[in-house]
What we know:
Pfam families: DUF7907. The structure is a single chain. By secondary structure, the protein is mainly beta. The chain has one domain. 9% of the residues lie in helices and 31% in strands. It is built from one helix and eleven strands; from the N terminus they run H-E-E-E-E-E-E-E-E-E-E-E. The protein has a seven-stranded antiparallel sheet with strand order 1-4-5-6-7-11-10, with no helix packed on it. A hairpin with a 2-residue loop joins strand 4 (89-93) and strand 5 (96-100). The chain is globular and about 45 Å long.
Amino acid sequence: MKLTSxxxxxxxxxxxxxxxxxxxxxxxxxxxxPWPTLNRTTPYFNLVTSVRNISPTNFGFTNLYLHAYHxxxxxxxxxxxxxxxxxxxGFLNGTYAVFNLGGPFSYGMRTGYVPYGSxxxxxxxxGTGERGFxxxxxxxxxxxxxxxxxxxxxxDWWRNVPQLFMR
Length: 167
């Protein structure tokens, strides 16, 4: 079997590309920042909703578990579903809330800012997320002064399932 000249040229380019040296750091004398070391400071947990003042209109929003709704490369909206078996399993790394979504990366909790709004969405994005979370009296809370509680059971927002929002 004879190789055509175009195929030989392509193979030549591929071997050349594989032989190129690795890219250097962005600035001479520096090394890329290492992936942060994760140190679990709490037992693993699952976040589950508990509705205050249950009524006929909000009864279906109790016992929902935190899940990730894929919205882009390494990006997920925090949603609430009844499926406990595939729920996001988390732990605290200091005050970072880190979740295992079944892949090779860790996913950290982040909260979104909505200008002039009184609530913003929660996300589970690749990485360690943002600091400022704790478990207090069995509740998952933000420890900064701007936390007004969680609301995820009020409406099905962008994803047509209940989403987690911070007040």
